[in-house]
Amino acid sequence: MLLSNQNILTTKELTKQDIQQILDTADSFKEISTRAIKKVPTLRGKTIINLFFEPSTRTRTSFEIAGKRLSADVINISGSSSSTEKGESLIDTARNLEAMKPDILVVRHKYSGAPALLSQFIDSPIINAGDGSHEHPSQALLDLLTIRSQKGELEGLKVAIVGDIRHSRVARSNIQAMQTMGIKVCIVGPPPLIPAEFKYLGVEVSHNLREAIKDVDVVMVLRIQLERQKQGLLSSLREYSNYFCLTQESLDKARNDILIIHPGPVNRGIEISLDVMESKHSLILNQVTNGVAIRMALFYLLLGEKNANPN
Amino acid sequence: MQTLIKDGHVIDPANKIDGSFDILINNGKIEAVLPKGKSSFSKIKDVKVIDAKDCVVAPGFCDMHVHFREPGHEYKETIETGSASAAAGGFSTVAVMPNTFPVNDNRSVTELIFSQAKKTSLVNIFPIGAITNGLKGETLSDMGELKESGCIGYSDDGKPVMNSELMRRALEYSRMFDLPCIQHSEILDLTLGGCMNEGIVSTELGLKGMPVEAEDIMVFRDICLLRKTGGRLHVAHISSGGAVDLVRQAKAKGLPVTCEVAPHHFTLTEEACRNYDTNAKMSPPLRTHKDIEMIKEGLRDGTIDIIATDHAPHDLADKQVEFDNACFGIVGLETALPLTFKLIDEKVITLQKAVDLLTQQPCRIFNLDKGTLGVGKDADIVIFNPNTKYTIDPKNFKSRSKNSPYKGWNVRGKVIHTFVAGNSVYSAPNI
Predict the structure, then answer these.
(1) Which residues of B touch A134 (CB under 8 A)?
(2) Total domain count for chain A?
(3) Containing structural domain, residue A47
(4) A:B CB pairs within 8 Å
(5) Interval B185-215: pLDDT, tens
(6) Ramachandran region of residue B422, left (φ > 0), alpha (ψ -120 to 50) or beta?
(7) Which structural domain range is residue B130 located in?
(8) A164 and A276 share a domain?
(9) Structural domain total, chain B
């Protein structure tokens, strides 16, 4: 085991060395996805279960493809078909699955801490694929890979994260991972979406998009959800867009080489304008491609490195 | 047969006794309390002698806030198992909250509790009746009938009475029966979906917080209502430092308000929720160091009247789940004494004051003829060794549920014997 943990539950518990190793490994895996035959035998005979209690297309598919490119057997179990709807508890479900001897469980759950709970009862490694508003470590890692591919170095960069920080597991995972890698983070959004406590995490806080992105290397835009209006956290999407939609205009004062990323799915015209999304600054599709490589790296480092060759 | 408890250090705040005394019990009552050695007890024949050397002998503790889950959720606790837990914790009297199923909002449920208690309970059980029917916060319960059938206070505990008009009327109406209204102080709009204190830990864990203001605002509202209505307000399980300040100010103005604190609110902070430990999930939630300091100040200066455990047993099935879905609360009866010793060790309060908070004071607020070793009173007595050190292990709890965040804590203060009406209801193993 080269990583400091047998589970990937948070980025908080990843060391700088861990992250570097994951990114380096992912870099070496990228090439596999460009081959005519996109498959290596690295994890042949290993079983990966994607246990998704919350709807997801992109992340689930990304994990599935990553596993299959390494020749693992990947089984998808989604919330709607899982036994939890029959009243079976989360732990019972996971224990039953474990009794079938999988090698890795990839878990997504709408409640924060669900993968951590499972890890107390399950011996197989667990990868948190997003839990409530808590963390989504593989997303943060693929974001770092995307940034590093462009910038070469992570240390010393400045990143602004814009949007619904309060509910964002992507923001939490990125803040922790970016700080570990020596990146300065500024979070941007209206006060109801930025809990005051975030300042204790060592980030800058801004409520002015244009000013906040003036000198950053990267701006990460988060999806905004209409239901926040009902919760009284937003007045309207229209007004939110007036202040926080990333448009050409709002990029006026920004650096020429600014990079734009978004974990998806995108609400076009709400948090990011169509032209910005499709501009040369945008790396949104690179993120998706890198996502497969990052997940291959995680599988490999958790399972395969001792008995396989990455090529 | 008579029982003689000899050579103990008797602490009985109700009778201002603090020293070496021997206690004679006859027919379930306190027959005599006389200074050690000066008594002629040694001449009595046919007496059972309990050696209380090195121990404190005090009135049995009285916990005015427990949940025994019967009727309705007997898989978590029953009056029988809850009373065994109480006895093991040194409590001879407990008041059971009405959030059972069905709710204790009428005579028939109150009578059921009394009849079950008579059959199965080791300790004295006093029911608390609901303020509103079904705890729904819509209509007042028949407070008169509840009192006549034996309830000693009113509460919708677990839920607050959100409607200000209804709370105002409850305080007014309860005046007729001279029983306190016990409020679980929480503005629900502010805590919707919340499962722990709102703060740095909830932010990191991605859990919805319950801001401390939700408690402060409700305490302040109720104090405002008190001015005009009269009635008596008892603030349950105070957890916010700001709320302690509000109660202090109200008392200074002479308003009839009292409050209680649970041991977990002076021994644990929100940090205990890290790792999503559902045994640290309670309502009101564990707060911060600053709140604990303000609670200790409230204990020091008498703002906080009593210690009550909010004993809230939950089965593993209700706790071994996602943090959001876990039930609120911990079992408290069997850890109350050793946790109170933490206050004594930190010199927040004296041992004498601790006994007072667990005996005379609750009985004063709830008009109970308990919590005293006065001659002729029921012989409800606890004997504990203040210097016995041990490690808390929930496996050993008598409670049916084991949901406690104190597993592995090294503590002192061990209950050796508990008596109710002269009968031994608990003796520590290996004594």
Answers:
(1) 205-207
(2) 2
(3) 16-134+290-304
(4) 61
(5) 999 999 999 999 999 999 999 999 999 999 9
(6) left
(7) 60-365
(8) yes
(9) 1
